[in-house]
């Protein structure tokens, strides 16, 4: 088989085999470094995906609202009255102006996948002697369930929403002592009230949300909140969730609405994620430097130990370029082989950690995400690092004078 291989490959593999102990140590070091990179990257991706899933369980990716109401100073015939004190007015719940037109514009955008008009407001849910203040959301189920996957989190009943139905959170049901099929008296601040039947209980993954969540048909909410034909928000889902903020800014600039993306409303989370990504990048850099110095040190020692052999090869007609390639190949092979073992170590450690670490309720701490591109990336990183680390020793070996090397 060897006769079919180029000279550089034969020499590189032989040098690595002759120095087995050094080779094993450096492959072990590379494997540990790559394992750390795989473990940290996959775990961070899992934690981020878990948080995004929890956040988007109960909220849309972009929400359009009425712009803030601003008080303006009174003007006299001569201009603005400078002595007037202008206070921020109370923010009344009002409908989005011309919302059907805005909804149609959103549906026409290529980045948008789903649009749903909704109306929300505070009401009192009463059952017997128990009462709770809740956030009532009036929705169109066929469009809203494409944005917030309420049916996926139903723990009892069916997500049916006719004009006489209501779906409530599990914690709210516990506080009211209600089960599927019970009647709730829902009263608005205006005095309007409706008796609705609980058709389903939903668990949206947050105790606070489950204590306040209540869904009814859009027209039912419009009637209760005294806003017939109006909506307070337009909820939107986009193709690229990380582009939500840019899309929201464009929508706000082109329409008389306030556009909040899930990225803006969860700014603290993104600050934490960016900090974790920065830490992960620094870990990768220092691991790569450690691996590079380790490979370079081993190959420099190899050049010194094999000076006579290199001199003999040069005297036999081996070119400088061939000697250079021999040591570059050694660096690349060390990096590639180490990356294979490291990827297996990192994946194994992550699978074990995922199985052991659990949340208080027994559910997984983070989803297990092991993407092929992560392994390809780490293999390339380790191989390129090996090649770069081998450059200096390879140049030194190629520059050796055969006469001086043989005499030495």
TrEMBL record:
Residues 23-253 form the MacB-like periplasmic core domain. The chain crosses the membrane at residues 24-47, 282-305, 326-354, 374-395. Residues 285-402 form the ABC3 transporter permease C-terminal domain. InterPro entries: ABC3_permease_C (IPR003838), Lipoprotein-release_system (IPR051447), MacB_PCD (IPR025857). It is found in: Cell membrane. Pfam families: FtsX, MacB_PCD. It comes from the Bacteria. It is a multi-pass membrane protein. Keywords: Cell membrane, Membrane, Transmembrane, Transmembrane helix. Belongs to the ABC-4 integral membrane protein family. LolC/E subfamily. This is ABC transporter permease. It comes from Bradyrhizobium ontarionense. The lineage of its organism: Bacteria, Pseudomonadati, Pseudomonadota, Alphaproteobacteria, Hyphomicrobiales.
């Amino acid at each position: 088989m060897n006769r079919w291989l180029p000279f550089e490959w034969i020499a590189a593999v032989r040098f690595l085999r002759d120095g087995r102990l050094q080779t094993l140590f450096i492959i072990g070091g590379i494997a540990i470094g790559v394992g750390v990179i795989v473990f940290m990257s996959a775990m961070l991706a899992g934690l981020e995906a878990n948080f995004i899933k929890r956040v988007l369980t109960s909220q849309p990716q972009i929400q359009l609202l009425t712009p803030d109401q601003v008080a303006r100073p009174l003007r006299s015939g001569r201009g603005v009255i400078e002595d007037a004190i202008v206070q921020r007015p109370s923010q009344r719940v009002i409908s989005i102006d011309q919302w059907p037109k805005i909804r149609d514009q959103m549906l026409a955008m290529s980045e948008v996948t789903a649009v749903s008009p909704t109306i929300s407001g505070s009401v009192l849910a009463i059952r017997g002697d128990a009462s709770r203040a809740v956030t009532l959301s009036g929705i169109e189920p066929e469009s809203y369930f494409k944005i917030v996957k309420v049916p996926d989190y139903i723990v009892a009943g069916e997500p049916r929403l006719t004009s006489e139905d209501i779906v409530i959170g599990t914690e709210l049901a516990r506080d009211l002592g209600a089960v599927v099929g019970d009647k709730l008296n829902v009263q608005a601040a205006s005095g309007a009230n409706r008796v609705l039947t609980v058709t389903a209980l939903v668990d949206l993954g947050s105790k606070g949300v489950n204590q306040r969540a209540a869904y009814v048909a859009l027209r039912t909410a419009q009637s209760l909140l005294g806003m017939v034909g109006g909506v307070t928000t337009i909820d939107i889902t986009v193709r690229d969730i990380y582009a939500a903020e840019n899309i929201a800014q464009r929508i706000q600039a082109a329409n008389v609405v306030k556009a909040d993306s899930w990225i803006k409303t969860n700014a603290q989370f993104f600050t934490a994620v960016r900090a974790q990504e920065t830490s992960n990048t620094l870990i990768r850099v220092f691991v790569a430097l450690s691996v590079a110095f380790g490979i370079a040190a081993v190959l420099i020692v190899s050049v010194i130990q094999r000076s006579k052999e290199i001199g003999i090869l040069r005297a036999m007609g081996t070119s400088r370029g061939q000697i250079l390639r021999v040591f570059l190949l050694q660096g690349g092979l060390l990096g590639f082989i180490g990356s294979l073992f490291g990827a297996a170590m990192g994946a194994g450690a992550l699978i074990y950690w995922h199985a052991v670490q659990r949340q208080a309720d027994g559910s997984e701490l983070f989803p297990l995400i092991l993407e092929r591109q992560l392994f390809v990336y780490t293999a390339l990183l380790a191989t390129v690092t090996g090649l770069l680390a081998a450059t200096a020793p390879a140049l030194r070996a190629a520059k050796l004078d055969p006469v001086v090397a043989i005499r030495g």
